[in-house]
Structures are given as C-alpha cells and as structure tokens.
C-alpha cells in the first residue's frame, strides 16, 4: 500500500468533484452513472461528488462558467479541471482529472 | 519579502493562462462538435436557461406518454395543442383528431365556466381544481386539472395534467358511507389513539354518554366515561389492543356526563393503518339497561317459580331426553318421597327414579310416556315405587313433553305426587263398594224369590221408574220395555188390567191429595204380563212430600200374589159347589113336581154357583124340532125366551143347545163373540156350557167371563 501511495502526490489527495447535468438528458444520465463508477474504483473514500441539475437552477451555471452539459469540474485539488461529455471514455477521464490508474 | 516578478515572467504567466483558457475553450468546442454534450447553457436578458439538444428531451417524452395521467398543452382559449396517449384513451379519440379541438367541448355544460376561470388563472401561474371529463360516448369521469403556464409559451401556452379521481371519489364515497353507518348505529362507536385520546364520537355515543362529539374529541376516554373503579378494566383493554387482540363484549358500567352510571356492554378492537401497524382503537359500547331489567325480571320469575316448586307437595322435575334421560329435580321432595338423597339417586350418569319403579309397573309407565311423546300430549301415570325404607309408595305422575323448534322432543317437565294415602282410601272405598254390591245382590235375589218389584212414580214428570225385578213380574226385561222409565199413559195402556184401571187411578189421586206425609196404602190389583196374562199383585206404597207439603213421589213395591189368589179361587169354587149341592138337595126335598124342582135348581145355580144364567130346555119331537125352555133363572130370562130355537140341523139349529140335543154331548163355548153359530144372537155373556140331562131335557149355564 505504501509503495503505491508514494510516486504521485495527487493520488493521495482528496477530490472535490462537481457534475453539472441537464435534467434527464441521456448524456447527463450516463455521465452520472460513469463518474460514480470511476470514483468508486479509483478514489474510494477520498472524494466528494456533487451533482447539479442546471435544468432546475440554470443560474448556478455562471459560477463555473458552464456552457455545455454535462460537464465535470475538478474543484480540488487545484488547478481546476473540466471534462465535457458523458465520461464514457474512462481513460480520458482519468487523464483529465490527473488520477493515476489504480 | 515582496514578490518581485519581471515583465517577462508576467507575460509568460499571462500567456500560460491564456493558453490554458484557449485549450479549455477549444476542448469545449470540440466536445460540443463531437456531440459529447446534449445541452447548452444559454444566456438571455432574463438570465441563463438550458437548451436541450436533440435527444435530450426523450426521457420526458417517454415519461409523459407512459404516465397514468392525461397531459395536455392548451392555448389560452382552450384549444388543445398537444395531448398524451392516456388522454386520447380517456376521451376515446385518436390523438390526431384531438389536437386543434377545444378541451371545453369535452366538459359538461356546468363545468365550462369553472374551466374558463381556471384557464385564465393557469396562464398566469399555477391553478388546479376538480372537473368532469365527458367522453364522446357520454361517460363522465371525475378528474383533477392542474395547470401552469409553459415558460417558453410567454403566457400563451398552458400545460395541463389531468388526474383520474374516480378511485379517489369512490374511496371518499365509501368513507362517507362507512361514516354514515357509524353515525346511524345504535351502538356508541368511539375511536381513540392508542393513548385513549378520542378521535371520533358518533351520534349514539352522544346520546348514550351526553357529551357532544365536539366536547369529546381530543380528550382522554378515561376522563370522559370511565368510572374510577373501572379504570383498570380499560387499562387491560388497551393492553389487549396492543397485542392486536379484540376484546369480547363485556358487561360493564360507564359514566354519563351528568355523573349517572349506565349498564353497557363494551367491545374494543385495534385499528390498523395500511401498513398493518396499530394506530388506535375502536370501542363499541351498547346500552344494556333494558336487557339488565329483563334479566332481573327473569331472576325474579325464576325465584317465584323456585318458591312454588319448593312448596309443591310433589317432586318437580325435568327429564333431558337428549342427555340419556337425565332427570333434574327442582325441589327437595325426592328425598321425602323416595327416601334417597339427591346424590344417591344418581344411577350411572343418569339421575332418575325409574329404577325405583316396581318391575311389574315399569313397562306400562315407559309405554305411556313414549306414547305421550309420540302424540305430543300430556300424560298421567300411576305406579308403585320402592321407598328406601323398603316399603311401597303409590305415585301419581303428571308430565308433558317439551319440543324444540325442529319438533324433536327436548324435555319432559312434570311433577310426581305420593298418592299412597289416596290409594288406601280408594281400596277401602272399593271394599265398601263391593260389600254394598253384594248386599244389593242379595236384596235383589230376595226380591226375586219373594216376587217383589220396586217402583216409583214422579208427579212432576208423570213418569214411573221400575227396576229389573219389577219388570220380571211382568215377565219382560227393561230392554223389551224400552228402559227403566215409562210415562203413566204407556204404563196404563200396556200393563194395567183394564177393569182395574179406575181403581189404580183412584189410589194415585188419593196419594196426591192426601195431607198425611206418612200416608201408606196396600191394595190388590191385576196387572198384565208382557204376553197379556193376568197377574195378581199386592201393591204397598208410601209417598214423599216436598217442603210445601205437595206430594212429589210415590214409592212402592208390588208382590206377585197370583198363586194365593188362585188358591183363594179354588177355595171359593169348592165352597160354591158345596153351597150349590146343599141348596140343590134342599130343593129336591121341597119340590112337589118336576117343573118346580127344575125351577128351584136353576135358581140355586144362579144364586149360589156364581152363574148369571141357568136354563133347562125341552126338546119337542114335533116337525119343527122346536126347543122350549121349561125352567130358567138369571138376569136375561125374558130376552132369551123370546127367541125361536130349534134342534133341527138347519142354519137356526147350530146353537150349543141344538148341537147338544142332536149329539147328546157336552157343548162348551168359551167365547160366544168368536163363535160363528152365535152370530144371529148377541149376548152380554161370554161363556156357556150346555149338556143333555135326559133324553128330552137339556141344561145351559152361562158366565160373564172365564174367571
């Protein structure tokens, strides 16, 4: 366990993620399912995921300058990263979020 | 230490940031172009909104099309712009034909105004209300309309969700029906929480306990109607409810608002919610004051019956036919009557006195009881019972079978009396009766031997009453005479000798008229037997008078004295013969010629021998063969002499005297009225005897009747 933790500092950090979705649009629904799986498999116990439905509260889009939906934002650790899409390409998501594959 | 950065460093940093932002923008653009996003956040003057790209609305469409409510989009005038499949099914029209029509047309007349108002409200904000949807075939469905304006419609397009209320309405109706049943129930029905707080209180509860529903709801049931001494009972009741048990109806007391107590029967049941959890109690109480009164009355009547039973001098019992003839006694008499205590009378499992009945009496008793059960009637039997002391007791049992609704016999109710004393009295009476019968028989025999008959005559009914011996005097039976009673007219016609009738009548008259209460008379008279024979009787009788001194009855006996009379007659005849002979001898001595002698003799015959006529005729030998009387005596002499008589064998010569002269034999005529030869002559006497006393002389004597 110690060996695995050592190489990357990011890997041991706490992640705060936000997923902006548009109601029940097919990609939003897929994105929720995909990120849940990726987080559970790679960030188990050290992440917070907030799902924000802009359909209900479109004004929340401004804070994170959301343009297209669904969008996943990595709030922490910095720097802020964003990935647009249904997050079905797990490899790209891991790279985008700078997470070492377990 | 202040952060000192060179312009180059600043520019480099700015450049890095711009690159990053550009890369981000490019990535976003790429994602949009690559169809990785299906919604965009767009800005308008009113603020941001979400624009869904193709495919993004699919789930909503599926949801709307498959939901169980009707979904409709309306223009402000009520024109249908869109409807889902469920709505089309409701109104039974294809969706293509629905769009463009007015929803108003699908509502009954009375709902349209309400719909308009709702629509106007729905264009500005949310509005909802119940309406009725009417389909093309006329069926109506209660529905709930929920309206709200569509954001992109700018107040001109309204979305409507229509929910079917049929089940809700039906459930509400069922609820109100149940509520009505509860309200109209005669039982007080109260529902409470599990803590006993009243939640509902029906009309009957108001009437029974005096609290209005408004007063009772929200208060604890214990504080309202449970008397302090019954609190425990209610606590147990609620414990049972928590165990999900219903209590049975239990007789108890509850308290009214005015403090008075009332007899009630209470039953409590738990109330469950849809999930099966106990949420409260339903308590049902019933006023049983009337029933309690009836119970008291019943107890009193039972007591009265018990007292009566105890005072009866017999065993009052009930036989349970269906329990093998178990016999239950209702008083203490069995011990007194049988000598056995109640528990001693138990034979096997059956309590009965049957085994005590004398063996020879038992079959008769059993048969009689069986017969009564079969005929559904009462019975009365007498039998002998073996007392514990070894003695026999006579019992008289009266019973009556009792039947169930199916006509099958259930019980025999009855009473058994000890009639031993009566029985002994009866035996003594029977002995006395037998003695009396024996002495009566002897008397009858004595009367028969003495040839005495008994009779009574009642003046009031003008009837004679005779006994068998009386009839035997007449040589007939009561049956032949037509009974023991006979009117005086019938008696006189059939049984009184005609010549003696005036004498009999005279005696009856004297008996009636006499003032002497001890009047007694003896007379002799002739009566006729049933066959017309003459019988001499001696009649002895006395009379009975009423308080006013009127004779009401003659009571007498007749004794047959024919034999004595016959003997008297023989004596009389012998005397007469002697007298006649003596007088004849005297006449013979005194007579100087034949004519004088014959005249004297006829005179003697009439005077002493009891004949009314005596004649001596002379037969002439002339051609007329005439007959000439030469001596005669008696009351009819002249008349007799006037006749022309002949002894010739002609029509005129057929008289006894003529026949006697011709034949020389004695001619006797017992009844000249029946003798055809006497037809030309009518005579007042009945019997004649004629005989030839010499070749030419013939004598005739005549009597009135045969003695």
Essential attributes:
heterodimer, A: 102 residues, alpha+beta, Glutaredoxin, four-stranded mixed sheet, 3 helices, 27% helix, B: 707 residues, Beta-Lactamase, six-stranded antiparallel sheet, five-stranded antiparallel sheet, 22 helices, rod-shaped
3D architecture notes:
The complex is a heterodimer of chains A (102) and B (707). Chain A has one domain (15-96): Glutaredoxin (3-Layer(aba) Sandwich). Chain A has helices spanning 2-5, 26-42, 90-96; strands at residues 15-21, 47-53, 68-69, 71-76, 81-84. In chain A, a hairpin with a 4-residue loop joins strand 4 and strand 5 (81-84). Chain A is globular. With 102 residues, chain A is α+β, with helices and mostly antiparallel strands. The longest helix of chain A has 17 residues, at 26-42. In chain B, a hairpin with a 7-residue loop joins strand 6 (140-149) and strand 7 (157-164). In chain B, 38% of the residues lie in helices and 29% in strands. Chain B starts with 6 loop residues before the first helix and ends with a strand. Chain B has a six-stranded antiparallel beta sheet with strand order 22-21-20-25-24-23, with helices on both faces. Chain B has a five-stranded antiparallel beta sheet with strand order 4-3-7-6-5. Chain B contains 22 helices and 30 strands. In chain B, helix 19 runs antiparallel to helix 20 (594-608).
């Amino acid at each position: 366990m110690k060996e695995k933790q050592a190489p990357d500092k990011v890997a041991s950090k706490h992640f705060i993620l936000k997923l902006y979705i548009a109601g029940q649009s097919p990609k939003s629904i897929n994105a929720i399912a995909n990120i849940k799986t990726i987080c559970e498999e790679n960030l188990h116990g050290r992440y917070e995921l907030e799902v924000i439905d802009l359909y209900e509260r479109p004004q929340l889009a401004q804070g994170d300058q959301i343009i297209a939906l669904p969008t996943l934002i990595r709030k922490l650790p910095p720097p802020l990263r964003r990935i647009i899409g249904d997050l079905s390409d797990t490899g790209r998501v891991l790279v985008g979020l700078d997470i070492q594959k377990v | 230490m202040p952060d000192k950065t060179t312009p180059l460093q600043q520019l480099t940093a700015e450049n890095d940031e711009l690159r990053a932002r550009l890369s981000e923008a490019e990535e976003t653009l790429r994602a949009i172009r690559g169809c990785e996003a299906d919604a965009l956040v767009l800005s308008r003057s009113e603020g941001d909104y979400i624009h869904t790209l193709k495919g993004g609305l699919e789930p909503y469409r599926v949801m709307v099309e498959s939901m169980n409510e009707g979904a409709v989009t309306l223009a402000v005038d009520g024109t249908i712009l869109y409807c889902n499949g469920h709505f089309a099914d409701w109104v039974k029209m294809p969706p293509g034909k629905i769009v463009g029509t007015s929803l108003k047309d699908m509502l009954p007349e009375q709902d349209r105004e309400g719909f308009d108002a709702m629509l106007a409200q729905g264009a500005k904000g949310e509005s909802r209300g119940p309406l009725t949807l009417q389909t093309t075939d006329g069926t109506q469905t209660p529905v709930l309309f929920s309206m709200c304006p569509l954001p992109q419609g700018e107040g001109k397009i309204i979305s409507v969700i229509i929910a079917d209320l049929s089940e809700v309405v039906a459930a509400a109706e069922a609820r109100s029906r149940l509520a009505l049943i509860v309200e109209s129930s005669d039982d007080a029905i109260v529902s409470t929480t599990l803590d006993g707080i009243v939640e509902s209180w029906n009309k009957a509860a108001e009437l029974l306990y005096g609290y209005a529903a408004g007063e009772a709801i929200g208060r604890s049931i214990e504080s309202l109607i449970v008397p302090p001494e019954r609190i425990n009972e209610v606590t147990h009741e609620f414990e049972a409810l928590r165990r999900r048990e219903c209590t049975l109806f239990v007789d108890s007391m509850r308290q009214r608002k005015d403090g008075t107590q009332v007899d009630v029967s209470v039953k409590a049941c738990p109330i469950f919610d849809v999930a099966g959890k106990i949420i409260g109690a339903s308590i049902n109480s019933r006023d049983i004051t009337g029933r309690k009164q009836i119970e008291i009355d019943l107890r009193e009547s039972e007591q009265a019956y018990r007292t009566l039973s105890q005072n009866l001098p017999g065993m009052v019992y009930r036989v349970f036919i269906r329990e093998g003839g178990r016999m239950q006694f209702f008083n203490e008499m069995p011990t007194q009557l049988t000598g056995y205590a109640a528990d001693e009378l138990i034979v096997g499992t059956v309590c009965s006195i049957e085994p005590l009945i004398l063996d020879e009496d038992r079959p008769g008793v059993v048969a009689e009881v069986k017969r009564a059960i079969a005929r559904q009637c009462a019975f009365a039997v007498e039998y002998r019972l073996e007392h514990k002391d070894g003695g026999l007791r006579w019992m008289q049992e009266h019973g009556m079978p009792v039947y169930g609704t199916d006509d099958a016999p259930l019980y025999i109710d009855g009473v058994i009396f000890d009639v031993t004393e009566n029985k002994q009295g009866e035996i003594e009476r029977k002995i006395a009766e037998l003695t009396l019968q024996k002495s009566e028989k002897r008397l009858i025999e004595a009367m028969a031997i003495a040839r005495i008959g008994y009779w009574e005559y009642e003046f009031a009914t003008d009837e004679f009453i005779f006994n068998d011996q009386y009839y035997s005097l007449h040589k007939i039976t009561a049956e032949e005479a037509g009974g023991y009673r006979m009117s005086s007219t019938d008696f006189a016609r059939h049984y009184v000798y005609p010549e003696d009738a005036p004498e009999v009548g005279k005696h009856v008259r004297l008996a009636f008229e006499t003032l002497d209460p001890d009047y007694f008379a003896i007379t002799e008279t002739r009566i006729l037997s049933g066959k017309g024979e003459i019988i001499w009787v001696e009649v002895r009788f006395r009379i009975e008078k009423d308080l006013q001194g009127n004779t009401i009855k003659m009571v007498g006996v007749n004794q047959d004295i024919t034999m004595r009379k016959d003997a008297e007659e023989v004596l009389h005849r012998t005397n007469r013969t002697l007298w006649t002979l003596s007088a004849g001898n005297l006449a013979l001595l005194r007579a100087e010629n034949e004519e004088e002698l014959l005249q004297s003799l006829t005179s003697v015959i009439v005077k002493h021998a009891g004949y009314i006529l005596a004649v001596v005729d002379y037969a002439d030998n002339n051609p007329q063969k005439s007959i000439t009387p030469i001596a005669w005596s008696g009351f009819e002499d002249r008349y007799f002499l006037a006749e022309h008589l002949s002894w010739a064998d002609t029509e005129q010569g057929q008289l006894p005297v003529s026949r006697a002269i011709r034949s020389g034999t004695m001619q006797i005529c017992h009844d000249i009225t029946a003798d055809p030869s006497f037809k030309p002559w009518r005579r007042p006497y009945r019997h004649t005897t004629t005989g030839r006393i010499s070749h030419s002389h013939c004598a005739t004597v005549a009597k009135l009747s045969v003695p």
